[in-house]
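Workshop exercise sheet. Pairs work together: one partner reads the sequence aloud, the other fills in the structure field after running the prediction. Swap roles for the next sheet.
Pair: D.N. / O.F.
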Amino acid sequence: MVSRSIPSTSDLASTSALEDEALFQQWYHWGEEEANTGHYLQALRCFEEAAVAQPAEPDALLYQALCLIHLGQPQRALELTEQILRDVPHHPQGWLFHGVALHRLGRYRQ
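Structure field:
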């Protein structure tokens, strides 16, 4: 696991849109690094922080769902993919992970 010394996004007072985008990119990048090394719990935290910085960005939710699938929490992953698909109905990876979560739940016909 890579050590992080940046404060939590939720601990920061007020930030500009540019700062929010920079925070999103940094947390998202760290999440990718953690996920790529199999540290899904740490990656999940990073993607959660990215979502705080940019709540309208579906990819932070998408990769939270991916981490939850790897962590054996398909119901929570399904809820996130449903949220993504409400906001972006034609999101291809949203549908992909939605299907994976349903499969892990044994809900094959949905």
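Discussion prompt: The chain has one domain: 16-104. What would you look at next?
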